[in-house]
């Protein structure tokens, strides 16, 4: 009797173990029946904010003289920009940078020597941020009008930004998700299967470049500021179960 009971218990254990093993194999195969696809969303747009700056300087042996001369140039620049329609709130003049200058030379032994004091160099910059992109562009391109007034003015290249990027990003994410799902449905259809539940979604970083450019994408995201017209793109990776 004990022998039959032991055999029955062993048989029951085998059945239970087989059931667990079969279920594990089923679940494993189920996890392998997935498809991963990457969708792309992109959009072109024109910048609505411009940032531009320039610097000017004066030199003199007397600090006060250099500062007074710089103040005169600052007033000329301020009046010029106001005459071109730049608002006072859009202009920021930096603090004055003061540098002592020395004449340097190399002696007969080839040793570099710092020579006598040759005066003060005072530099100041003005920066402008405005939503009137075209107007500031024109000012930056015609800066010779300031130079012709006897001012040593150095202009930097304008930088362009877009203030509604959050809206663009949402639209691109939606388009990238739709693109990825359509790809997944097509793959499943070609394989004679149906698309199941979404298991995982991974969003890439936003890349903003000049349209039709060969700029490299960056792992942390690219943001082109030199082009007024821009093209943004983002990728979405989706993983679906396949029925």
The unreliable regions are 1-30
Q: Helix count?
A: 5
Class by alpha and beta content: alpha+beta
Shape assignment: elongated
Q: What are the secondary-structure elements, in order, as H or E?
A: HEEHEEEHHEEHEEEE
Major beta-sheet overview: 6 strands, antiparallel
**Helicity range:** 25-40%
Distance between the termini: 49 Å
Radius of gyration: 34 Å
Approximate strand percentage:
35-45%
Calculate the mean pLDDT score and round it.
Answer: 86
Total beta strands: 11
Protein name: SIMPL domain-containing protein
Organism: Epilithonimonas ginsengisoli
Structural commentary:
This protein has 243 residues and is of the alpha+beta class. Helix content is 37%, strand content 37%. The chain has five helices and eleven strands. The strands form two sheets. Strands 2, 3, 4, 5, 6 and 7 form a six-stranded antiparallel β-sheet that branches. Strands 1, 8, 9, 10 and 11 form a five-stranded mixed β-sheet that branches. β4 and β5 (112-130) form a beta hairpin. The protein starts with a helix and ends with a strand. 15% of the residues are buried. The model is unreliable at 1-30 (pLDDT under 50).
Please describe the topology of this protein.
Layout (H helix, E strand, L loop, with lengths): L1 H31 L1 E13 L2 E12 L2 H21 L7 E3 L3 E10 L5 E19 L2 H9 L2 H4 L5 E3 L3 E3 L3 H26 L4 E9 L3 E3 L12 E2 L5 E14 L1
Parallel strand pairs: 9-10
Antiparallel strand pairs: 1-11, 2-5, 2-6, 2-7, 3-5, 4-5, 8-11, 9-11
């Amino acid at each position: 009797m004990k022998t039959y009971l032991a055999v029955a218990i062993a048989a029951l254990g085998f059945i239970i173990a087989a059931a667990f093993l079969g279920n594990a194999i089923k679940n494993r195969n189920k996890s392998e029946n997935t498809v991963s696809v990457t969708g792309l969303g992109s959009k072109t747009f024109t910048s609505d904010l411009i940032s531009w700056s320039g610097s000017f300087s004066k030199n003199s042996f007397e600090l006060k003289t250099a500062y007074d001369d710089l103040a005169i140039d600052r007033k000329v620049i301020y009046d010029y920009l106001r005459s071109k329609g730049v608002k006072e709130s859009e202009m920021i003049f930096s603090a004055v940078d003061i540098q002592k200058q020395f004449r340097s030379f190399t002696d007969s032994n080839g040793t570099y020597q710092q020579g006598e004091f040759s005066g003060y160099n005072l530099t100041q910059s003005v920066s402008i941020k405005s939503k009137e992109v075209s107007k500031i562009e024109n000012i930056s391109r015609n800066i010779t009008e300031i130079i012709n007034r006897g001012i040593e003015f150095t202009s930097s290249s304008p930088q362009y930004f877009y203030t509604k990027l959050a809206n663009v990003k949402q639209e691109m994410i939606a388009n990238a998700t739709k693109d990825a799902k359509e790809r997944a449905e097509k793959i499943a259809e070609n394989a004679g299967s149906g698309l199941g539940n979404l298991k995982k979604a991974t969003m890439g970083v936003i890349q903003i470049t000049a349209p039709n450019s060969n700029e490299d994408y960056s792992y942390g995201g690219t943001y082109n500021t030199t082009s007024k017209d821009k093209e943004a793109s983002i990728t979405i990776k989706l993983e679906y179960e396949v029925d």
